[in-house]
Design a protein that fits this description.
The structure holds 2 protein chains of 2 kinds.
Chain A lengths: L14 H5 L15 E7 L5 E7 L1 H4 L4 E6 L31 E2 L5 E7 L2 H10 L1 E6 L6 H4 L15 E7 L2 H10 L2 E9 L11 E7 L4 E6 L4 H12 L6 E4 L15 H13 L3 E4 L2 H7 L6 E9 L5 E13 L12 H4 L10 E10 L13 H19 L3 H8 L8 E2 L5 E2 L4 H12 L1 H13 L3 E10 L7 H6 L8 E7 L5 E5 L8 H13 L6 E4 L17 H27 L7 E4 L2 E4 L2 E7 H10 L12 E6 L8 E10 L6 E11 L6 H20 L31 E4 L17 H17 L14 H12 L1
Helix pairs in contact in A: 10-19, 15-16, 16-17, 18-19
Chain B lengths: L1 E6 L2 E6 L6 H8 L18 E4 L2 E4 L12 E3 L12 H8 L9 H14 L5 H7 L11 H14 L4
Parallel strand pairs in B: 1-5
Antiparallel strand pairs in B: 1-2, 3-4, 3-5
Helix pairs in contact in B: 2-5, 3-5
The chains are: A alpha+beta, B alpha+beta.
Amino acid sequence: MSTRIFGSGIKRREDPRLITGEARYTDDIKLPGVLHMAVVRSPYAHANIVGINSSAAEAMDGVVAVFTGEDVDLAGIPTAWLIPDSDLKTPEHPALAKGKVRYVGDGVAIVLAEDRYTAQDAADAVEVEYEELPVVVDPEAAAQDGAPQLFDDVENNIAFRWVMGDKAASDGVFNTADVVVRDKIVQQRLLPTAMEPRSAMAQYNSATQELTLWCTSQNPHIHRFIISAVTGLNENKVRVIAPEVGGGFGSKIPCYPDEALVSWAAIKLGQPVKWTETRSENYQITIHGRDHIQYVEMAASRDGKLLGVRATVYAGMGGYLSTAAPGIPTILHGLLYVGPYMMDSVYCESIGVMTNATPTDAYRGAGRPEATFLLERMVDMVAKRIDMDPAELRRKNLIPAFEDGYEVATTLIYDSGDYPAAFEKALGIAGYDDFRSQQAEARADGRYLGIGITAYTEMCGLGPSQVAGAVGFQGGLWESATVRVTPTGKVQALIGASPHGQGSETTLAQIIGDELGFPVEDIEVIHGDTTETPMGWGTYGSRTTPVTGAALAQASRKLKEKARVLAAHLMEAAVEDIEYDDGKFVVKGSPDNFQSIQDVALMAHLAWNMPEGMDPGFEESQFYDPPNFVYPFGTHIAIVEVDANTGDIELKRYIAVDDCGPQINPEIVAGQIHGGVVQGVAQALCEGVIYDDNGQLLTGTMMDYTVPRADMFPNFELGDTVTPSPHHPIGVKGVGETGTIASTPTVYNAVLDALAPFGVEGIDMPMTPAKVWQAIQSAGS
Amino acid sequence: MRISVTVNGVAQERDVDPRTLLVHFLREELDLTGTKIGCDTSQCGACTVHLDGKALKSCTLLAAQADGANVTTIEGLAVDGEHHPMQTAFWENHGLQCGYCTPGMIMATTAFVEDNPGASEEAIRHNLEGNICRCTGYHNIVKAVKQVADAAAGGD
């Protein structure tokens, strides 16, 4: 009996090319005669462009051309999430600035040269005269009267004002509650820092009018759509290829000016054009995450019933509205305000504000980490106020187990969950009951241990297209896939999604292998090329396994049905008498009488002997539009020790119990959680963008921005529970973002728990040793 | 200027602009694109190669400084098509996701384990300070390196 491939932690199919250096990322691809593009970028956060003199640059050997915003006739870079009922403004975003720059890094001119070094030299030689303007980088300050204005048509820099919930009802709850806690929480800006910087290369064939664009994209079909729109080329003449892509975390969702500019220049000059950002450039111009200032309150009863949450959020959008930016602090944020708790009142007012900073957009978790953080922070504050153990308070308020639908106050219908099971399991692994006595003993010795707990659920597997439309997303959120079997019984699975490190070539092959019995070695998952693959909306929002996986499972099931009928025909048996067993179609009661899936595939291709009415070939496609989101959940626990003399924080243990439904490949699931946890912990402890008052990015290199290192972490302790999604063909939920969503408040609350003896009430993230030490000193004085 | 470098066992002679970084020489001149560039300040380690047996960041070295040296890149690590044990360990332990930091990680850790057979987990974590991974949270990278370090110390 063979082991079932679904659920097996097999080695990844993508790794051989990656561990040998044979994989080809965008910048690795070479074309003869390629020109290199460098972008002249604004050193000022807000300024008028008075004049540009490119004559010295143009005179340099090897320089082919210099263009400014006046030369480039591209349509503006669009915003693609137009949230309704929010008075949304979408100010013009030219590919190169025209007349005015709005953040440090805003593109002013492009240089095309024969090699990379010359292009950069020439960019440095372009003289731009600026007239500096007043700058504002803080989103709350930017929304006040009298703040510097980025756009004439965006009053008070307010791009949108989105409201969720009934204010009067919420006020009623808060006015009568026994207990109200409140805090101002700053979700600091973060740099996504995919290890591969962004890159784009375009080639244009003037005879066929076809443009090919290789780029670092999480969603090449969306890039094709937008590039077609901004260049005016027909969409069927644009081919976007996302080759190997080195991580994204949301930062490779948007269409940026750079992709449009290489396309434009390749068309204009009739030569291929390549651009690859440096890391410093990446930190200046590739989207940032978070940047929320949250004023949040929670109401509760004295005996520990959570009654409601409300918040006003100022969300920094940066100098332009990026592709999905308006959806992040609104739809993907407010709708998660109930979390895993029985809580009947929610209210959120989210104000999107233009600032003289890099545009923000989706960064791993995108709105949901910010929601989970504020909830878990408030829950701990309520526990402290009513003097109840924080685990007990959570236990008391968790939604009980449900298998098929639970509607919450935000109008979401959670699909399935057993929050108490994951919660108790995590507490058990952590040894919570013993911890408090260990903590007391340690304190007596002058050692400060702390524990933090986060119970969470989140919405992912985005999402029903009807919902996407209702919330203003300018696209669908279905996926499509084709399972194509060759005459020799080998599989090509073509998907519209575009994985970039998630291991989907393995996971998705396991789904097909499980459905049809092909060995995974015989299944190639092909993605990332708009000409080769069917339409899809991309890889983000923890959606590829749930949405593309469902499409593949259903396409596979169609093939299985065709195979059953054909096998019956070939064996002259009744279809009802054919049983499927691990890749074989067997005549019931006659185990030696069978056709393998490979036999059937060959016969379907040959088509010598088909049943009446059956078409030849062995290939099926499926469009899958999910009926609901999926809602993974779990509980994370961190134990930290704070050195009161130095403020140093040691993460001693990290326990994560996550439920993403049945796990297709447990090793890959664990890997997603490890990486997600580290990114979330980093927000709590070390990462944070710093701008000075002039809008200069002070954390502009990896020397200045603290990406976490290996020695900050213990080995993680993972556990799981398995609660299938009732609406999904194979029951699976996404797991790409849960680690990031849960871990920031977990570690934050653990540190505050450790510091409880000092009376420290809060520390702005990241909680660096200096800030922790200062907080101890201030609280003690 | 003209330089001679042996790269992955093959003698190479080229005229280079004196300011050419070794990483650009490898990637653009020799088409060995397995070596990656992840930063411009020598933090990330994606460009790590072996120069005369030592792990070095090829973004901090001029190609001219490699004149006369022996360079091994990720493409030259496997012998006769057999993966180096570190490559195998990364694969077996799911020590990579997007793969972009992986060549540098493998080049850095092979040199480390050679000098430190039997290294402790703590030492491995500490030594990874010069290599940044954004996907794996390091957990499985540490596991992979430990597996090779233990084997190098004569363990099983």
